[in-house]
Design brief:
The complex is a heterotrimer.
Chain A lengths: L26 H5 L13 H20 L27 H5 L4 H17 L18 H4 L2 H10 L5 E3 L2 E3 L12 H13 L10 H10 L9 H6 L45
Antiparallel strand pairs in A: 1-2
Chain B lengths: L3 H27 L20 H12 L122 H8 L2 H9 L38 H9 L17 E5 L21 E5 L1 H11 L30
Antiparallel strand pairs in B: 1-2
Helix pairs in contact in B: 2-6
Chain C lengths: L18 H46 L12 H33 L6 H24 L12 H23 L8 H26 L6 H34 L6 H15 L14 H13 L1 H15 L10 H24 L1 H7 L4 H30 L6 H33 L6 H37 L26
Helix pairs in contact in C: 1-2, 1-3, 1-12, 1-14, 2-3, 2-4, 2-6, 2-12, 3-4, 4-5, 5-6, 6-10, 6-12, 7-9, 8-10, 9-10, 10-12, 12-13, 13-14
Classes of the chains: A mainly alpha, B mainly alpha, C mainly alpha.
């Protein structure tokens, strides 16, 4: 990269009328102004104001809608919780051990039961699915509820004063003891219900008990069974069923079941 | 500014920062996802695509389909992607999807064809929109349709081969299949259809399929409805079936006059009918028809492309994404357990 | 025209060399050394521009008339469109940008370019790469990634070519004379360093060690937005920072503004990739980060805009005369418009409607044409006379070029934004059939084709004019080609 000067260099190609003599500079260069330089004016206050606004809004947007910078939150406003399940690196399996029984049960419920009983636990009068929210069976002793889940239910049943007859519930014992126990635990403490939790040992015992009972239950079978919790499990947390409620199928509904949606709705940005 | 080195370092650092943030860290977060499976290790989703569908993706890419079609559904709070019904199905059209797309849906896709523009509808669930074979299949009893040669899909599809006879689809009296609103269609669909069709409609889960033609193995060869004297789409294949896709690729405006899609005639070949017309020949009418003794059949690339389209299905629930609440349909005892 | 009133330096005699004259001789030498490679880059770029424009015409017309020439595989819309895009990106824009950058680097580093045939080789390889790539796309080998459709065999050639070109440019920088590094040099050096990294990162993460699933799209758009901002945007801004003060003969307004503008641009613009994937299947923070980065990009936009504006203040009338100034200032103003549009379409509330509509196309074209290409046209109008020793022959052709381009891109932007809004609003309404949204945008697409005709005229006129210059048929004159006759007021400075 020689500096300019001494010896005129041979130019290659494309010599459009420029002579060999380097000293004769063509007019374009002659009339050129000097190469650009930079002044040193200070920043204007207005500009700093614009910076501040941009940083504020940009930063606020970033803070508000980042979903905690987690790889799991696809929704901008949601903070991910464990119960929303699959983090990176595996299906639900690896998370299962960290979830509570009710959270596991919720997954089972959503996958299997919500189709008919609805995510809100309200069921559908017209279709014949009884509600689980505030239901005597769900809130009562776990035996009856477990019988229904394990073996299914046929024929009419009265829940919360209403009669449901048209639908048939299939048996769910094929889910396995843990899942049945979890889903019972979930439905017994969701939507304002206050039933006791259920463990898989209890279900296993019940399964043995019911091994000889091939078909579904009917309402009469349920009433014939004692309205008690299954023996042998831990009783944690949930209040024992109030006395006298279960005895009357026509009892008024207890509490209003809050709707439960699987994921928080993020605010509109 | 003085100094070559600080300048260069600063330049490289800024790009490194953005690369770390938008490429590397996301790779740590969502770059190594496994498919989801339930505890028994069954019901794995998603699965890698079959050979034909994989090759079909190559055809899709080579012809730039992704410049007009997206394959991503946005959540319901952000857009109305999920609830949008498909245009071509005349009644009870399937929606674009059950849920938003999630990263796990694309782990086996290369390239992941999310798309950027929608001159045509989103295709994330186009495979799901295909009519399925009905289990209880009443025979076709439409009055007087001749047993026209079937345009049934080639058997090599990876996904459930859709039934094809589109009799009741086609019973709309000379109406274009789309852009009519779906409301216009059901009365027409019932008009000439067999009673069996109505039962099939009631039995079908809403949102799962269009009123699928209840053709099945037991029924006579798939038929198309009677060609009316005026050229009408009355003999179109069932919406979103493989045959429909073939016809749509070959001549989009034969199925939808408003379609802006280019024709992909080069994916099909015209050849002489040998003896009997091929099972996968495209049925065309009027001036599009190839003429006496000729037929239009798909090339292998076209079959692969359609196999790919039929494999596009993101409706499988994912734990991390909320699915639209499934509306119960009919007795739960009759339905298979919804645990998928 | 009254040449004597225009302040020109009369040629000094051979023996009478003042400092200024030495500088002029130096510049002449530098220009002479850069002549062959830069003209070769420019010539290639113009050829690709013409090809890309024809492909653009096909693309635009076929989009609203899909049966046009639809039976041929090579001409199907899905292949023509990426062919057009890649020819414009890597054929026209990259080559004109690199050619301009070489000349600017040589001038600013005050070094003559040694062994210019190295650059010529690099340019030839680059041309080969683009040619291979376009043929590959039309033959069906497109990779499926936006703005990266060239198949691998072409990408490799491009990368090799780039290494040759960039190393030469950076070497010039390394051996520069003079201590302070001028603003343009920051931008150009940055562009030359950023491009290989972003290209290599994209090729690696998409093809060599591919990332999984949706990350491909994230990397893809990280690359595409970086190409737009950190490669093309940097080249254009650097060029504008040279041309504006050079032509009007005043210093750039403020060093501090320039420094802030540069670093905030580098910092924020590289994060904006996910703006093209709003509400897609990604962790929300990625998308939010890009949107926030777009908002923060207001900082460099305001800064650079203010800097240019204050530099130009009082000198806007010179745009009447100088083609370079006209094109460059139009480009710089478009930069502001383009950035503001980018912020608006990224926000989730607007992206809801506009995400999958033609507005995205308007945004890209605003950036690549109204901003980048117009600045490059201005640069060519300045540089080419210095390389061929002649002035542009017909002021009228320059005017046709300018106005056809301005009306063309203006109409195109208007049509695509309006059409995109209609399309997006219809698309968001699930009670309407989807086809309704497509139908509603078709009239606007026809309007866009009309604008394409204007731009085609502009480009062919420019190419013809450029050809005249290459053939030595420019004007021999000591005054530049002004767009309007010069009748300066006493004391008024005239450009060039």
């Amino acid at each position: 990269m020689n500096p300019s000067g001494s010896v005129p260099r041979r130019r290659q190609g494309m010599d459009y009328g420029e002579s060999e003599d380097v000293q004769k500079v063509h007019a374009a260069i002659q009339r050129e102004k000097q190469e650009p330089r930079v002044g040193l004016e200070p920043l204007s206050l207005w500009l700093i104001g614009i910076y501040a606004l941009a940083i504020f809004f940009g930063g606020a947007y970033l803070g508000r809608f980042s979903g905690s910078f987690s790889g799991d939150s696809l929704d901008p406003g949601t903070v991910p919780t464990k119960s929303h399940g699959a983090g990176p690196g595996g299906g639900g399996q690896q998370q299962t051990a960290e979830l509570s029984p009710a959270e596991r049960g919720k997954k089972v419920f959503m996958a299997n039961c919500a189709v008919c009983h609805q995510a809100s636990g309200l069921g559908s009068q017209s279709q014949g699915y009884p509600p689980l929210a505030g239901s005597e069976i769900t809130n009562g002793g776990s035996r009856r509820a477990a019988m229904v889940v394990m073996k299914g239910l046929q024929g009419p049943i009265t829940v919360k004063g209403q009669k449901f007859g048209s639908a048939v519930m299939q048996p769910w014992e094929s889910l396995g003891d843990q899942k049945v126990a979890d889903v019972l635990t979930y439905e017994r403490q969701e939507w304002g219900n206050h039933g006791s939790p259920v463990t898989k040992e209890q279900i296993a015992a019940l399964r043995k008990e019911l091994a000889s009972h091939p078909g579904s239950f009917v309402e009469a079978d349920l009433h014939a069974a004692p309205d008690e919790d299954l023996p042998g499990g831990e009783q944690q947390g949930a209040a024992p069923p109030k006395p006298g409620e279960q005895a009357k199928p026509g009892a008024p509904p207890q509490g209003s079941p809050p709707p439960s949606t699987p994921g928080a709705q993020p605010p509109k940005p | 500014m003085k100094g070559f080195t600080p300048l260069v370092l600063g330049i490289l650092a800024t790009l490194a920062f953005s690369w770390l943030g938008l490429a590397y860290i996301p790779d740590l977060q969502i770059g190594h996802l496994d498919p989801q499976s339930d505890e028994e290790g069954t019901d794995i989703y998603p699965m890698p695509k079959s050979g034909m569908a994989e090759r079909g993706r190559g055809v899709y890419v080579a012809n730039g389909c992704f410049y007009c079609h997206s394959e991503q559904l946005r959540p319901d709070y952000a857009a109305s992607d999920i609830e949008r019904p498909r245009d071509a199905a005349p009644s009870a059209p399937p929606k674009w999807g059950d849920r938003r797309s999630a990263p796990r849906d694309y782990i086996f896709d290369r390239p992941a064809l999310l798309g950027k523009m929608r001159m045509g509808p989103d295709l994330a669930n186009i495979g799901k929109a295909a009519p399925a074979e009905e289990e209880a299949a009443p025979a076709q009893a439409s009055p007087g349709p001749p047993a026209a040669p079937a345009a049934s899909p080639p058997a090599s599809n990876a996904s459930p081969p859709p039934a094809n006879a589109g009799a009741q689809q086609n019973a709309k009296p000379a109406a274009r299949p789309s852009p009519q609103t779906p409301a216009a269609a059901p009365p027409a669909a019932n008009a000439s259809a067999s009673p069996a069709n109505v039962a099939a409609q009631q039995g079908a889960k809403p949102g799962a399929q269009p009123p699928a033609p209840p053709a099945s193995a037991g029924s006579p060869p798939q038929t198309a409805a009677a060609p009316s004297p005026a050229a009408s789409p009355s003999d179109s294949p069932a919406a979103y079936s493989a045959a429909w896709h073939h016809q749509h690729l070959y001549a989009p405006r034969s199925l939808n006059l408003d379609s802006d899609m280019p024709a992909y005639k080069f994916l099909y070949e015209k050849r002489r009918v040998g003896g009997e017309q091929s099972a996968d020949a495209i049925k065309l009418r009027g001036e599009r028809a190839p003429g006496e003794g000729w037929e239009i059949v798909p090339t292998y690339d076209a079959k692969c492309l359609v196999a790919y389209l039929m494999s596009l299905n993101q409706s499988h629930p994912l734990n991390e994404v909320k699915s639209a609440a499934a509306a119960p349909a009919g007795s739960p005892a009759a339905a298979k357990p919804a645990a998928k | 025209m009254n040449p004597t009133e225009i302040p020109l330096k009369s040629p000094g005699s051979v023996t009478d060399l003042s400092i200024g004259d030495v500088e002029q001789v130096e510049r002449a030498l530098i220009d002479a050394s850069t002549r062959v490679p830069v003209l070769m880059f420019y010539a290639s770029a113009v050829v690709w521009l013409l090809l890309g424009t024809l492909l653009a015409g096909f693309t635009s017309f076929k989009l609203h008339s899909p049966d046009l020439l639809s039976n041929v595989a090579v001409l199907t819309w899905g292949r023509i469109r990426p062919a057009h895009l890649n020819v414009m990106l890597y054929g026209w824009a990259s080559m004109v940008g690199m050619g301009t950058a070489i000349w600017l680097m040589a001038r600013l580093c005050r070094t003559t370019l040694r062994h210019p045939l190295v650059l010529v080789t690099g340019g030839a390889f680059w041309n080969l790469g683009v040619l291979l790539g376009v043929i590959g796309i039309l033959a069906g080998d497109s990779t499926g990634y936006h703005w990266l459709e060239f198949p691998s065999y072409a990408a490799v050639v491009l990368f090799v070519a780039y290494s040759i070109i960039a190393s030469w440019a950076v070497l010039m920088f390394r051996f520069r004379r003079g201590d302070p590094i001028y603003i343009t040099q920051w931008y150009l050096l940055a562009a030359f360093l950023w491009f290989p990294w972003m290209y290599l990162a994209a090729q690696t993460m998409l093809f060599i060690v591919p990332v999984q699933g949706v990350l491909q799209a994230a990397v893809n758009w990280w690359y595409a937005n970086n190409l737009l901002f950190l490669w093309f945007g940097s080249l254009a801004l650097g060029t504008a920072y040279y041309m504006i003060p050079k032509v009007i003969g005043r210093p750039v307004y403020s060093y501090h503004l320039a420094a802030i503008g540069f670093w905030t641009y580098a910092f924020f613009a590289s994060w904006t990739g996910m703006q093209r994937l709003v509400d897609g299947p990604f962790p929300a923070w990625m998308i939010t980060a890009s949107i926030a980065a777009m908002i923060l990009c207001i900082i460099p936009v305001a800064t650079v805009g203010l800097n240019h504006h204050m530099t130009m203040r009082g000198y806007f009338p010179l745009m009447r005369y100088s083609p370079t100034l006209r094109f460059t200032v139009f480009g710089a103003m478009s930069y502001t418009a383009f950035s503001l549009l980018g912020v608006v379409i990224s926000l989730r509330s607007f992206a809801r409607y506009l995400q999958f509509s033609e507005v995205s196309s308007a945004y890209s074209h605003l950036g690549l044409y109204a901003f980048f290409s117009m600045i490059m046209f201005g640069a060519m109008y300045y540089i080419v006379p210095r390389l061929v020793g002649r002035e542009w022959r017909f002021a009228s052709l320059i005017k046709i070029h300018f106005w056809a381009s301005v009306y063309g891109i203006g109409l195109m932007t208007l049509m695509l934004i309006a059409g995109g809004m209609v399309q997006g609003l219809n698309m968001d309404n699930p009670t309407l059939p989807f086809t309704e949204s497509t139908q509603s945008v078709l009239p606007y697409l026809r309007g866009r084709s009309l604008s394409g005709i204007l731009m085609t005229v502009a480009h062919f006129v420019f190419a013809y004019h450029f050809l005249l210059m290459l053939l030595g048929l420019g004007r021999t004159a000591s005054v530049p080609t002004f767009l309007n006759p010069v009748n300066p007021e006493p004391g008024e400075m005239v450009a060039h």
